[in-house]
Amino acid sequence: MERTNARYAITMDASGTSRAGEVILSDGTAVVIRPIRPEDEPLMAPFHAGLSMRSVYQRYFHLSSLEQRIAHSRLSLTCRVDPATGLAIVADRVTADGAHEVLALGRLTRTEPGAAEIALLVMDRWQGRGLGRAMMRALVAHARALGVHRLHGDMLADNDAMRAVVRRAGFAVQPVPGDAAVLRAERLLD
């Protein structure tokens, strides 16, 4: 198991498919960070229900109703990622009754050869426990494994938590020219 202050280690099976990594959050909760799967679709509605409108706005830059976010057509696309265009990962926790719960969703989308955009969303009640940091480490590890050399992502300027996560992960954060409300995080990978 990995503590949130340790490096996230990605493992690959013989086919080159990434496998899950377990982390322990600052409150002692064990979660598994793993690639999203089509069978995760039913878990995504409760995940979206656990997001405040502020979290939704900070991630998508616009408000979107719960009904829009949990529409089958949208969740189906979220849970079925084309490896040629990127990947999505989730933080999965097993509850006391043995059910699975998605606590966070991270996405890496190829934007050009060698470059990808990152995005991250953590359920409100799980924010502030190191999960965002662990997910970002996982996204960076996956990017490296996929041969990505440059990561970038946009965030609202008032999203202090995300700004802290990306800076801690080694990203440079700059204003987006012509848009004072948006910042861009960029990192070159070695």
Task: Give a brief rundown of this model.
The protein has 190 residues and is of the alpha+beta class. It has helices at 41-49, 53-60, 66-69, 72-79, 131-145, 160-168, and strands spanning 2-3, 21-24, 30-35, 86-94, 100-112, 115-122, 150-156, 172-176, 179-188.
If you average the pLDDT, what whole number results? Answer: 86
Question: What's the shape?
Answer: globular
Query: Count the strands?
Result: 9
Strand content: 25-35%
Low-pLDDT runs of 5+ residues are: 1-18
Q: Which CATH top level class fits?
A: Alpha Beta
User: So, the CATH homologous superfamily?
Assistant: Gcn5-related N-acetyltransferase (GNAT)
Q: Let me know the largest β-sheet.
A: 9 strands, mixed
CATH architecture: 3-Layer(aba) Sandwich
Give me the secondary-structure category: alpha+beta
Structure in words:
- This protein is of the alpha+beta class and 190 residues long.
- It has one domain (2-151): Gcn5-related N-acetyltransferase (GNAT) (Aminopeptidase).
- Helices cover 28% and strands 34% of the residues.
- The chain contains six helices and nine strands; from the N terminus they run βββααααβββαβαββ.
- The chain has helices spanning 41-49, 53-60, 66-69, 72-79, 131-145, 160-168; strands at residues 2-3, 21-24, 30-35, 86-94, 100-112, 115-122, 150-156, 172-176, 179-188.
- It has a nine-stranded mixed beta sheet with strand order 1-2-3-4-5-6-7-9-8, with helices on both faces.
- The longest helix has 15 residues, at 131-145.
- It is globular.
- The two termini are 25 Å apart.
- The relative contact order is 0.16.
- The model is unreliable at 1-18 (pLDDT under 50).
